[in-house]
Write a structure and sequence with these properties.
about 200 residues, 5-stranded mixed beta barrel, about 45% strand
Length: about 200
């Protein structure tokens, strides 16, 4: 039976560590391509697909895509930029999109609370990301205008529709604001803390 001295053991350990480091350095590090994630609107013309960003930029896939989209559909677009506004699509996620309703306030406004992650205006869209408790039943949403108000005043409507208790789910949606013109407007959203007020202007 052979017993190694403490010095010999230490030397062996150092040699193993150095060998591991050298071998790992020989491997080329893998790099993830740069990518961007934005809200966009799908534009379908015959068999071609393009995506219009809210600033007006139009992006086109480098190769034909078989993604099932409808013209005017709002999406979250994950893409890698190439050249001349061409892109490689990594993922496309359709999201809910609606218009401002001039009828229905206040009777149809529902106030199930939500947790706002972000709310912003870009182009002529009001965009939102928020969390709600979801189990299995479809929820209902809308954006209603108080036509009696002097300045454009909107109320975000959300109903869990008697959905049983579940778990937090992140949602995304957009509302087309073109019916408001370019006037500043206020939107009210009921959250778990309180009714919150946001003021924006259409770009």
């Amino acid at each position: 039976m052979v017993f190694l001295s403490m010095k010999t053991k230490l030397s062996s350990l150092v040699a193993i560590v150095l060998l591991t480091v050298l071998l790992s350095c020989e491997k080329e590090s893998e790099r993830i391509d740069n990518y961007l994630v934005v809200f966009a609107t799908a534009e379908i013309a015959e068999s071609t697909v393009a995506f219009r960003l809210d600033d007006g930029t139009v992006l086109k896939p480098e190769t034909d895509t078989s993604i099932a989209l409808k013209d005017g559909m709002r999406v979250i677009l994950n893409y890698t930029p190439l050249e001349n506004e061409l892109i490689t699509i990594n993922r496309v996620q359709p999201i809910f999109m609606d218009v401002v309703k001039d009828e229905g306030y206040p009777d149809k406004v529902k106030t199930s609370p939500i947790k706002i992650v972000s709310i912003w205006v870009n182009g002529h869209y009001l965009n939102m990301s928020f969390e709600v408790d979801y189990h299995s039943k479809s929820h209902a949403t809308g954006l209603f205008r108080d036509v009696s108000a002097v300045e454009p005043t909107l109320y975000f409507s959300y109903s869990r529709e008697d959905d049983p208790a579940g778990a937090p789910v992140l949602n995304y949606l957009s509302f087309d604001l073109r019916s408001l013109g370019n006037e500043p407007f206020t939107v009210y959203v009921n959250t778990y803390e309180k009714m919150r007020e946001f003021t924006f202007q259409v770009d």
